[in-house]
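Hi F.,

I've been meaning to write this up properly since the lab meeting, where we talked about keeping a consistent format for the predictions we share between groups. The idea is simple: the sequence comes first, exactly as it goes in, then the structure tokens exactly as they come out, then a line or two of notes. No screenshots and no reformatting. I'm using this chain as the first example so we have something concrete to point to.
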Amino acid sequence: MGRYLARRLLAIVPVLFVLSLVSFTLIKLIPGDPAAVLAGINASPVDIGVMRHQMGLDRPLHVQYLRFVERAVAGDFGRSVRTTRPVRVEIAQGFSNTFQLATVSIVLATLVGLSLGCFAALRRYTIYDTLAMMTATLGVSAPVFWVGLMLIVLFSADLRLLPAAGNVGWASFILPAVALGLNSSGIIARMTRAGMVDTLSEDYVRTARSKGVTETAVVIRHALKNAMIPAITVLGLQYGYLLAGAAITETVFAWPGLGRLMVDSIGYRDYPVIQAGVLVVGVGFTLINLLADLGYAVVDPRIRYG
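Output, unedited:
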């Protein structure tokens, strides 16, 4: 397992290098002069020149890149143009809220998706299978913003059971987590159903049944474990997308997360926050994929030695 982990860690090194280049060049590609934006609308050419020097924009590109990497490793991304607070504080606060929401959403999506997929596979080619897959397809197809608005209208405006916006306690997680997890649960259900249908027809499953193993043990210990590879792939990707900042959901529910922070920062042309946000999102996505790779090795030991 140690060698497999070492290989996966080495594989993400070039990914992180490319990611740092993308984050660094992002500020160069945005129209306008970042120094002029940071200096303010009333800044004189001298003030802009001083700001360019402070930002290191008057240095060669390779020097600017090395300085950017050095500061990024130390967690120093400067200050936000909009709030003047340290960027790392803004990112940490937004990422913390997004992490909580994404974790609740992916747990909910996993429970619903695996249960629905297994249910459909065990009753394949029946009306129950059709209804389960229709439900999964509805979850995949329904736009997140529409689901969010309908949940707000029903549970907040009409029934007045749950808060419609903000993060004011555990009840605030329910509506955005359901809206965010619905799409993921549908994808997980379809992948689980496909993997389970193939696995349940394998010889070792028939052998286990012929030995008198209970159906529950056959499904959980034999079929589901071996059908989890595609589901783990989807789980990793979906969790990565959620951690990247579910901007639409966070905007609909006024959730103070990373996605909403990035949208607001783009509107204010808050270059330091945008640059740091892109880097943090990319690193988070890379680490989630690494965890998914380790999940493969846990579920199927043959992958460790492949």
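Notes:
The chain has a mean pLDDT of 82.
Residues 87-122 form the longest helix (36 residues).

If this format works for you, I'll send the rest the same way.

G.
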